[in-house]
Amino acid sequence: MLAAVPSLRAFAISLSGNVDRADDLVQDTLLRAMANIDSFTAGTNMSAWLFTILRNLFRSEYRKRRREVEDADGHHVDSLKSPPQQHSQLEFEEFRRALATLLPDQREALILVGAAGFSHEEAAAICEAPVGTIKSRVNRARARLSKLLSIDSADMFGQDNTTRAVLTGSGPG
């Protein structure tokens, strides 16, 4: 369970866009998993089970918060950040903004397959969607990111392994 925490945290950040909320989601996921460990089927993919719990928790929280208004235009959040000091930080910020413009289902599929390293089949199980739908979402998300970032290949976008993995589907590393 603990081995999945970094990937869970990255997925939670991509879903929520907030590090503190992501940490809370991961903690709630682990608590719920421990409380319901008897429902886990031995021999199946523990990471996929944990990702499914996290995703369901996020969606439940999203439904509850749907009526709240939290800095919708992002001006307050932007005022709290210091400007990036290095070129790679600027590229990552550009990538993060482009990733945020994707449809939520596409972004979710892309993060699961590209950054978290799940297979299309595992991502389909986590998202409770057909494998073909996940493949389509990932493909459309990659095409949209490439267009938004004006790049012909992932090699043109910095040296960040995670960014390259998301754009090419080669897995982090």
How is the topology of this model organized?
Blueprint: H1 5-16, H2 19-35, H3 46-65, H4 75-80, H5 87-101, H6 104-115, H7 120-127, H8 131-148, H9 161-168
Helix pairs in contact: 1-2, 1-3, 1-6, 2-3, 3-7, 6-7, 6-8, 6-9, 7-8
Polypeptide structure, described:
The structure is a single chain. Helix 1 packs parallel to helix 3, helix 1 (5-16) runs antiparallel to helix 6 and helix 7 (120-127) crosses helix 8 (131-148). The protein is mostly helical. The chain has 2 domains: 2-65, RNA polymerase sigma factor, region 2, helix turn helix motif (Rna Polymerase Sigma Factor, Chain: A); 87-168, Orthogonal Bundle (Arc Repressor Mutant, subunit A), CATH 1.10.10. It has 9 helices and no strands. Helix content is 67%, strand content 0%.
Task: Output the CATH class name of the largest domain.
Answer: Mainly Alpha
Structural class of the helix and strand makeup?
mainly alpha
Into how many domains do the coordinates divide? Answer: 2
Most strands sheet: none
CATH architecture of the largest domain: Orthogonal Bundle
Number of strands: 0
Radius of gyration from the CA trace? 16 Å
CATH topology of the largest domain: Arc Repressor Mutant, subunit A
Q: Total number of helical segments?
A: 9
CATH superfamily of the largest domain: Winged helix-like DNA-binding domain superfamily/Winged helix DNA-binding domain
Shape: globular
Question: How are helices and strands ordered from N to C?
Answer: HHHHHHHHH
Task: State the distance separating the first and last CA atoms.
Answer: 21 Å
Instruction: List low-confidence stretches.
Output: 154-159
Measured by DSSP, the beta-strand proportion falls in under 5%
Mean pLDDT across all amino acids:
80
Residue share in helix: 55-70%
